């Protein structure tokens, strides 16, 4: 089931999203799945022009459908609002978008953290 959800956090921060996959209200084994996270300035932008691209094949706990999307400070070194999508390709070549929406990177008050 596709879910629209807007996200917001500060630029230049680390962020980890835990995503759990379900089928018929039961956790799905994602051992052989590839999970994708992409952020683009415009939805129509080519994939190679994405601001953030994550391809996840090693999962937190695949047998119970858990994976992590880990964003570093260099990933999130953006300001403003972009579009994001989380999707997958399963072991039977099925693919689906599971989350999408806008992602807003807010400028932090403290510019330098050392």
Short description:
The protein has 114 residues and is mainly beta.
* Shape-level CATH architecture: Sandwich
Helix count, per DSSP?
0
**Strand residues, percent:** over 45%
What is the average per-residue confidence, as pLDDT, rounded to a whole number? 95
CATH class: Mainly Beta
Based on secondary structure, the structural category is mainly beta
Number of strands: 10
**Main beta-sheet strand count, sense and barrel state:** 6 strands, mixed
Count of the separate structural domains: 1
Instruction: Give the SSE string.
Output: EEEEEEEEEE
Percent helix:
under 10%
As a whole number of angstroms, the C-alpha radius of gyration is: 15 Å
- Overall shape: it is globular
CATH topology, what is it called?
A: Immunoglobulin-like
Low-pLDDT residue spans: none
Distance between the termini: 42 Å
